[in-house]
Amino acid sequence: MKVVAINGSARRDGNTAILIRHLFAELEKEGIDTELVQLSGHVIRGCTACDRCKVNLDLQCAIENDIVNEIIGKFIAADAIILGSPVYFADITAELKALIDRAGRVGGANGGLYRRKIGSGVIAVRRGGAIHALDSINHFLHIAQMIVPGASYWNVGIGREIGEVERDEEGLLNMRTLGENIAWLLKLTRAGDTPSLKPSADAENRLLPGGGIHHIAVRTTDLAASLRLYRDLFGMRPVKEKEVPGKRLVLLDTGNGSHIELAAPLESAPTNSPETLHPLQHIALSTSDLTGVIGRVRTAGYEITVEPREARAGGSSLFIAFFKGPGGELIELYQQN
Ligand SMILES: Cc1cc2nc3c(=O)[nH]c(=O)nc-3n(C[C@H](O)[C@H](O)[C@H](O)COP(=O)(O)O)c2cc1C
Question: Residue of the nearest CA to atom 4 in ligand 1?
């Protein structure tokens, strides 16, 4: 599980960053991965309303010369998003607002990229305007259909010079409480496989424990066309996007926690291997006992094409292995820890 936070302040490692790090400490205690991105020093222009994101449907903003697309990628991969800002004239900073406008537009254009992720604002303030600034962030979190947890008071710490928030005991308590609540929610909503894939006790498959289809990998040479079908016509929500050697992957939730994985070969990838010629790349079956299952597959004489190995997906670690079925179909065994 991964939480990404943005510090919208012009001051690197100032009060906003300090508050976020107090929040992070609670998450890290629970084994949750964290990443802080500081906007200080970055020039970020606002949305130009070109609406090319609605045409391109490539999970990107058409303005490509700044950090926004990189951050959108981090948002897509994260389970929770924290947006932090100092109060500037009773509101958030211009850079954070520009990021919200552009990332928000891309998220909406691409079918709700941040839907049901957990989201929170964090505010550093000298004296006045904190609640208004927090509201500005909440407008984005709510329209993006994110789940917004609360804290013991509003998510605000008081201080002017760098480090002064450390003396605001109630502000630090807010951050700890917020961190605890985010960790609790993450574990409730994201831990392990999607609950809908868990068999009920009487339907349990003892030969493939923890079984279910995790994803079906489909090769596409036209990612935008595939997204128009699976995402736009069928409403499947993109939940992860990444590049691996030779291809770009977009994982879409079919609606019950199983997925279609679109695999678009990069230009540099070889084009004549059987894997790249067939549109159905592989079927990934979930299991909670990959070692046991692959042992039985081996004994039964199937060809193992990838021996069990560890992999990473977002912040969580996986065990995967591949073998060939009787018709030559490639089957992945997928164990999420
Ligand atoms: C341009 C600017 C405008 C500010 N406006 C406000 C304000 O409206 N209300 C307030 O209480 N503090 C205001 N402040 C003070 C900052 O919110 C405060 O120093 C905060 O702790 C800075 O956080 P940072 O260290 O993360 O940058 C302003 C600071 C700057 C630079």
Answer: 88
Å from CA of 164 to ligand 1 middle: 12
| CATH code (residue 254) | 3.10.180.10
Tens digits of residue pLDDT in 209-261: 777 888 999 888 888 888 888 888 777 888 888 888 888 999 998 877 789 99
The CA 93 to ligand 1 mean position distance, Å, reads 9
Tell how far the Cα of 119 is from the centroid of ligand 1, in angstroms: 23
What's the CA-to-centroid distance between 125 and ligand 1, angstroms?
6
Q: Are residues 159 and 266 both part of a single domain?
A: no
173 and 219 share one domain:
no
Pocket mutation for ligand 1, best pick of 126, 131, 136 (most atoms within 8 Å of C-beta) = 126
Range of the domain at 224: 195-336
Q: Give how far Cα 298 sits from Cα of 8, 151, 210, 301, 305, Å.
A: 53, 51, 19, 5, 11
Count structural domains, the chain.
Answer: 2
CB distance 86 to 125 below 8 Å: yes
Strand-pair partners of 264: 248
Ligand 1 binding pocket mutation candidate from 125, 132, 156 (most atoms within 8 A of CB) = 125
Ligand 1 atom nearest to 159, measured from its CA: 21
Pocket lining for ligand 1, CB < 6 angstroms = 9, 11, 14-16, 86-90, 124-129, 159-160, 162
Stretch (H or E) spanning 147: none
Ranges of residues in the chain whose predicted pLDDT is under 70: 191-204, 268-277, 313-316
pLDDT score, position 175: 97
pLDDT the model gives residue 328? 77
Cα 136 to Cα 46, 140, 321: the distances in Å are: 15, 7, 46
Cα 6 to middle of ligand 1, angstroms: 17
Beta bridge partners of 249: 242, 263
pTM of the model: 0.66
